C-alpha cells in the first residue's frame, strides 16, 4: 500500500524509479512506494525531470507544484505535490 503523507495542502509519497524503460508508466507498488518506469536515462537530471513531468501530467498540476524532496541521485525518491488533497491522490492511485 502506498504511504501517502498528508502535509496540509501538500502530499508526499515514495517512488522507486526505473529509468530507460520502453514507456513511462506506473508499474505497480513495491512495499510502500510507487514503482515508476520512465524512458529517460539517469543522466544530467533527465530522469528527475521526467518524474516531475509524469506526475504533473498525472495530477494535472504545473511542474512547479511537483518537487523531489529526497533522493535526487537515487532511484528511491520522495515526491511532494503542492495543492493536492489526500482524496485526490488516493483517486489518482486508485486507493480506496
From TrEMBL:
Stored SMART domains: DUF167 (SM01152)
Coiled-coil segments on the chain, per record: none
Pfam families (UniProt xref): DUF167
InterPro entries: DUF167 (IPR003746), YggU-like_sf (IPR036591)
GO terms under cellular component: cytoplasm
HAMAP family: UPF0235
Family: Belongs to the UPF0235 family.
The protein's name: UPF0235 protein DCMF_09315
Organism: Formimonas warabiya
Amino acid at each position: 500500500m502506498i504511504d501517502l503523507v498528508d502535509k496540509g495542502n501538500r502530499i508526499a509519497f515514495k517512488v522507486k524509479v526505473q529509468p530507460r524503460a520502453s514507456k513511462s508508466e506506473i508499474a505497480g507498488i513495491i512495499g510502500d512506494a510507487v514503482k515508476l518506469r520512465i524512458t529517460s536515462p539517469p543522466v544530467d537530471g533527465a530522469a528527475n525531470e521526467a518524474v516531475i513531468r509524469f506526475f504533473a501530467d498525472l495530477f494535472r498540476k504545473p511542474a512547479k507544484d511537483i518537487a523531489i524532496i529526497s533522493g535526487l541521485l537515487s532511484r528511491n525518491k520522495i515526491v511532494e505535490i503542492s495543492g493536492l488533497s489526500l482524496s485526490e491522490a488516493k483517486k489518482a492511485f486508485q486507493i480506496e
